[in-house]
Write a structure and sequence with these properties.
Number of strands: 7
Bound molecules: NADP nicotinamide-adenine-dinucleotide phosphate
Number of helices: 9
CATH architecture: 3-Layer(aba) Sandwich
CATH superfamily: NAD(P)-binding Rossmann-like Domain
Number of domains: 1
Shape: globular
Order of helices and strands: EHEHEHEHEHEHHEHH
Structural class: alpha/beta
Strand content: 5-15%
Oligomer: single chain
Radius of gyration: 18 Å
CATH topology: Rossmann fold
Helix content: 40-55%
CATH class: Alpha Beta
Distance between the termini: 55 Å
Strand order of the largest sheet: 3-2-1-4-5-6-7
Amino acid sequence: MKTFVITGASDGIGAEIARQLAATHRVEAALVLAGRSQEKLDAVAAQCARSGAQAITVAMDVSIEAQCRDLIARAVGKFGRIDALVNNAGLSAHALFEDVRAEDLHWYESLMRVNLWGAVWCTHAALPHLKQSRGRIVAVSSLAGLVGVPGRNAYSATKFALAGFFEALRAELKGAGVSVTLAYPGVVATQTRHRGYDAKGEAAGRSGLKEEDAMSVEECARLIIRGMDARKREVVMTARGKLGRFLKLLAPGVVENMALAALKDEMKPN
Ligand SMILES: NC(=O)c1ccc[n+]([C@@H]2O[C@H](COP(=O)([O-])OP(=O)(O)OC[C@H]3O[C@@H](n4cnc5c(N)ncnc54)[C@H](OP(=O)(O)O)[C@@H]3O)[C@@H](O)[C@H]2O)c1
């Protein structure tokens, strides 16, 4: 029996990772599904159970350290081991820096707590168990964690931080047999940008990015699971992402223009 702890499992990419793990591992999979919405977690757990997997839910907020530690304690309490921790919970944000008022700037810290600290706290608590199982860690960054995206300065900061942390941790854990896979999705068809913060730190209710060529959630989850299974260092998902990464070293101005081109016209800086 393999135990997978997945944060942000109530919706979007995390929920789909849970469903695909349940479908492929069936009775071999024990899933610990974490997120804030109990109702949504229950629905995903029921879908996983229909595939034959065991699934428990933990309603929690990754921006609170004690709740991250409790998540891991409950996973170990129930299943006795952790084979993989998927740090997927995350929040989006879209605002030009100059449009953020001083009194609203505090949401940058909140974003960092969700996108970086949640993963740090969960990973710290899970580490002894992952070392015991010679397990796997996944961290879901973003192409905005490889290239700074205009209008997404706060989000980019959190995802660069996440990537830096896990890149360093990967090297630290080399001898322990614990792999670290960093996933860098591009635009994936979820509601994340609608839920993410606007300049005031309120739910944006719309996306600032062009969404026409968005990758399906199914494809994104499949690529993340494949990378985790193969203990890949990185999963860069799109040709644009792969190109942008190398081009950044050779022609950074071109990459800036590519990043600007990803924005809807009305969201571009003047
Ligand atoms: N979709 C994309 O285009 C895209 C691209 C690159 C990277 N990503 C990254 O992929 C990950 C998943 O995003 P998604 O597109 O699947 O978004 P999503 O559909 O909005 O799902 C986000 C998940 O994170 C959970 N979550 C948010 N804040 C939380 C908190 N404070 N505590 C616990 N759980 C929390 C949500 O659950 P609750 O609301 O129930 O708490 C939900 O399950 C994120 O890290 C995101 O930054 C997404």
